[in-house]
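Hello everyone,

My group is preparing for a crystallization screen and wants a predicted model to guide construct design. The compound we'll soak is zinc ion. Before spending weeks at the bench, it would help to have a computed complex in hand. I've included the protein sequence and the ligand's SMILES below. Output in structure-token form would be ideal because that's what our pipeline reads.
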Amino acid sequence: MLLDLICFDCIKEQIDKGVPTTTIGDPIMTPFELVNNTGIYEVNCSKGHSSSTIIDNIDFEILFDYGLNAIVDGYYREAVSSLTAALERYYEFFIKTVLKATNIDFATIDKVWKNVSNQSERQTGAYVFLYLQTFGVEPSLLNTNKEVPFRNSVIHKGYIPNRQESIDYGNRIMELIESSLIDLKKKYPESVIETFKNYGYKEVATEKFEKIKKETGKEQDYACVNIMTTIDVINGREINSGDGRQGNVEKRLESMITGRSPRKLTLIKKQSNPTKASS
Ligand SMILES: [Zn+2]
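Reply:
Good plan to model first. Here are the tokens for the complex, ready for your pipeline.
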């Protein structure tokens, strides 16, 4: 999976020339980098710059699209593994958001989470009961007669699924996460944002840069970009019916193939603040 990033130096160069307030910018080629676990990307752009970009996303958003990219590439076992991880990390996000909404601080949540951090079954249990408490109904879960044995055979027994099986599993994971997340956003909009910010890549990356600044006394320049993932906490595709990320897994796979072609962005003027648009 490659992420569409931005080059801090290319953007700074254009802004220094007055783009986009006084003049229209030249298209800037979008640098691509392989996804990593830190959220910090050392970007080497086509103009030879080397700069840092951080992503404003959270783990399950990236893991889900990582799984879809694995389907595109024909790695169906790996797809099932990443999609499963996306669901498990979503459960963690849900649990922490609900706890935060009931005024429990993140330090306490983190301390208590350690008791279940290595046991996904216990995390699922916590999700089931907190969901019931939050919405008064039982949550939808993976089907124990079909989807759970399928997942276990792939992850633990070396079963190699075919393309259709991995797509079906992806559609199910998408439905489970998205339907729950949309309801969670309606119920606890503020807590969702706070939890996203606290556990997202941006927070971790910013802390790291602050630490370097403290140690070296050097200001760390970096750009920040929100990767428009299929499952998106802050800018969900459910907000706008014309959102280009609509559709089931099959449809998303088509978009991902198209999205692998080289792309560029142009700085445009939006109200009084410069922003970016991809093309
Ligand atoms: Zn550049």
